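Box S2. Input/output pair 1.
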Amino acid sequence: MSETRDLKRSSPATSTPGSTIDTFLDEAKRLGPTRNGAPRARLIFALDATMSRQPTWDLACRVQGEMFAAASHAGGLSVQLVYFRGFNECRSSRWVADPRSLTDLMTKIDCRGGQTQIERVLRHIRTEASQSPLKVLVYVGDAMEEPIDDLCAVAGELGLLGVKAFMFHEGHDPDAAQAFREIAHLTGGAYARFDSKAPQALAELLRAVAVYATSGIEGRARLAPRCEQANGLLTSMTGRKS
């Protein structure tokens, strides 16, 4: 796809201070300020696009607009789509600031068979967070076929960089549940299960994360009494009910 770039398997080379500053300035120019002059919160929306994920991919295409809507009152979001599928294919999109652009990107992608590549996703997020502030990772998947210790090592680094991972799990795979819970725990994020046959659940989860990304834990607390899924995420992060 012309609008996505391949993610390398190897760790990125260390940047010089000058190149890091240049990269940050280029990113700031591309994202631009919000209407009130504040920078948009940055969120990476990562999905497993292997063959079993097609129903959830279609669902995510339909409901991701609600994530933008929930964040709009607090300055909006800039979102990057990251996905993996097939044999050794893992890509990231440009940053987008409106739901239609993200939908356009997602509808051009079809799911293909292959193994999970969660570590590559986490390493990419580490690179992005080291270049410019990144608050949230949203990950949607149903499986985990990699060494869990490797995933946890990178997740710990994300936590140190201030990235909170919200791991949304479809199905009941125990290995995926264990890995997703650990990643969420190490980053200070949250884990939640959902059913692709109940699209409203994923929509509520995405709204809750968008409010957190733009307004923090207090914003989520205000949302939680009206949203069962948001309340569950808030409890998972803070250990208390709203």
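Box S3. Input/output pair 2.
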Amino acid sequence: MYGIKSFEIKKFKPKGMEEISDLVVIEEPLEVRLGFGKEDSRQQKSISVTMRTPTGHDFELALGFLFTEGIISSFDDVLSIHYCKDTGRQAEENIVRVELKPKIEVNLQSLERHFYSTSSCGICGKASIEAIEKKCIILPKTGFKISAEFVRILPEVLANNQVFFKHTGGLHAAMILNKLEKCFLREDIGRHNALDKVIGAALQQNLLPLSDVVLIMSSRASFELIQKAAMAGIPIMACVGSPSSLAIETAQVLGITLIGFLREESFNVYTHTDRIY
């Protein structure tokens, strides 16, 4: 299976040791390059290198990343997207080049990513939220609501659709649902990548904003995930793990209903609880 590799290992059990084949998730770098500018003065810039799982959704990952970073606003901004290989240096398909249409203006300063989540960056929570507010609109109340009974079945729905996780136990998943209909599910070793893949898939099909879906994440909730969800217009986000304090504060400001500690028996609703009945 693409994205999975087999290793011969020794497995130790209480009754002894056995030699078996073990499936593990592949982790490889993906570089995203951007081509932009007028037809007679095109420029190219490498804007991101991320460690990801090559599950066949690299284009979605690149598009979702560009959208959530505010570099593109729709799939119509894209002229082409393809793999490019550096002869003698890149033998695998680990470089994606996205060409923007000549009419799209790119602010080079905006291509410098700002990682507000690191504890050493010296940026406080308030500044982080203010930075995100400049990129995201506050989600309006649309009347979209879901029942507590529906929320309780989400862990089972997610688990039943995690194909790669079943084989390796080492991948995060992001899934968007409209009631019981599966819209998109993507897996990756990085939870941010999984969400970018889902958003990129929706972007390609011109489904944004996703104002009537629930996002389910197999991970904890960080404020970067909240920002990506808000950029895509997602009103409800449910995470298997815990939220951080900044994730809760950001969800409150941006109008997202945030669910954490999602279990079949119970779950916590931290913000905008009126969407759950």
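Caption for Box S3: The longest helix spans residues 148-161. The domain at 125-275 is CATH 3.40.140.10 (Cytidine Deaminase; domain 2).
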